[in-house]
Design goal:
Blueprint lengths: L8 E4 L13 H13 L4 E4 L11 H15 L5 E4 L5 H14 L3 E4 L9 H14 L4 E5 L8 H10 L3 E6 L4 H9 L9 E4 L6 H7 L3 E2 L6 H13 L2 H21 L1 H10 L18 H12 L9
Parallel strand pairs: 1-2, 1-8, 2-3, 3-4, 4-5, 5-6, 6-7, 7-8
C-alpha cells in the first residue's frame, strides 16, 4: 500500500445536531465541528452514517458542507459524505463538496437499488470523471459490500478512487487482503470503522486509521498517537478502558453519540430524526453516567 500521510489517524465524524423540533441546530453544528477540530482528531468526515446522513435533505447537506469548511478552515483534512440514492445524486453532492473546498469524498454505492457489477464500475468511473479530489469507498454491510478483489480493481481502474473505509464482517482479514499480495495497488489509505472497536487489531494489520464518531475523539486520537509512538502497552490499556463504552454505544448509535455530546456540553439537544433510533430510559442514562465516570481522567477538552 502506498501510504498517504494526509489520510492517517483518527478521522472524527461529528453528529448532526438537531433542535428538539428536529430542525437543524446550526449553533451546535458549529460547536461539534470545533470540538472535532480541537480535540485531537487528525481529520473530519461529514455527514455520514454517524451523522444521520440518510435523514438530511440535500439543502441541509450543502449547509453542513459549507459550515464544515468554514469551521475546519484547512487545519485538518476534510472528507465529505456523498452517498446518495442514485449515481447522479452522489455525483452532484460530490461536485458541490469539491467546489466548497473538501479535500476528499466518501461514498457507498448508490443504495436505492443494488447495482450490478457493471453498474458499480460505471458509478465510480463517472464519479472519478466528475471530480478531481480523492474518493473513499465506504465498504459497509448496509451499502452492498464489495470483495477485496472488487475494491482493488476499482482502485486500480480509476485514478481518484484510492482510499477505503473497511467495516464489513471480518474487516481485519479484509484489510490484510487489501494490503498483502502481489502487484501494485492504487490504495493510499485503509481505515477501519465500528467506533474504533478493533483499532489495536487493525493497526497491527497495517490500517492507516479509523473513522469513528467524534464524541470521544480526544481519547481515541490519544490511543492512535500512542500506537504511532511505539507505546503499545499504554495504548492497549487505554483502549481496554474504552471497550465498555464502545459496546454501549453500538446498541444505540446516534442516540448514544448525542447523549454523550450533551453530557460533555458540546451540543444542546440529543434529538434524533424520526423515524428510527431508540430513546434512552432511566436505566440507560444511569449506565451511561456510570461508564463515563470510569474514563473521566482520559478526557482532554478545554
Amino acid at each position: 500500500m502506498s501510504e498517504n500521510s494526509k489520510y492517517k489517524g483518527i478521522f472524527g465524524i461529528p453528529a448532526t445536531p438537531f433542535n428538539d423540533d428536529e430542525t437543524l441546530d446550526i449553533y451546535s453544528l458549529e460547536k461539534v465541528l470545533d470540538f472535532t477540530l480541537n480535540n485531537g482528531c487528525h481529520g473530519v468526515v461529514m455527514p455520514v452514517m454517524a451523522s444521520e446522513y440518510q435523514s438530511l435533505t440535500d439543502e441541509e447537506k450543502r449547509i453542513i458542507f459549507k459550515t464544515t469548511i468554514k469551521i475546519i478552515d484547512n487545519k485538518i483534512p476534510t472528507v465529505a459524505g456523498v452517498t446518495g440514492v442514485s449515481d447522479i445524486h452522489s455525483i452532484e453532492l460530490a461536485k458541490y463538496a469539491e467546489d466548497v473546498g473538501f479535500d476528499s469524498v466518501i461514498t457507498m454505492p448508490p443504495h436505492s437499488m443494488q447495482p450490478s457489477p457493471s453498474q458499480l464500475r460505471d458509478f465510480f468511473s463517472k464519479l472519478d470523471d466528475a471530480i478531481n479530489i480523492p474518493i473513499w469507498i465506504q465498504n459497509h454491510p448496509k451499502g452492498f459490500p464489495l470483495s477485496s478483489d472488487q475494491l482493488i480493481d476499482l482502485c486500480n481502474s480509476f485514478e481518484n478512487v484510492s482510499l477505503i473505509k473497511e467495516e464489513t464482517a471480518y474487516a481485519g482479514q479484509m484489510i490484510t487482503k487489501l494490503i498483502d499480495g502481489d502487484g501494485e495497488k492504487n490504495i493510499k489509505s485503509i481505515m477501519g470503522g465500528m467506533g474504533c472497536m478493533h483499532l489495536i487489531f487493525e493497526y497491527k494489520r497495517g490500517a492507516t486509521g479509523n473513522m469513528p464518531a467524534s464524541h470521544y475523539g480526544d481519547i481515541l486520537s490519544k490511543i492512535w498517537n500512542l500506537l504511532e509512538s511505539g507505546d503499545e502497552k499504554q495504548a492497549v490499556e487505554m483502549h481496554n478502558r474504552m471497550i465498555p463504552l464502545i459496546n454501549f454505544e453500538m446498541i444505540y448509535g446516534a442516540s448514544a453519540f448525542k447523549e454523550i455530546l450533551v453530557a460533555r456540553k458540546i451540543i444542546k439537544s440529543s434529538a434524533t430524526r424520526s423515524p428510527g433510533f431508540r430513546s434512552f430510559d432511566s436505566y440507560d442514562f444511569s449506565e451511561l453516567q456510570k461508564l463515563m465516570k470510569t474514563i473521566e481522567d482520559l478526557f482532554d477538552w478545554r
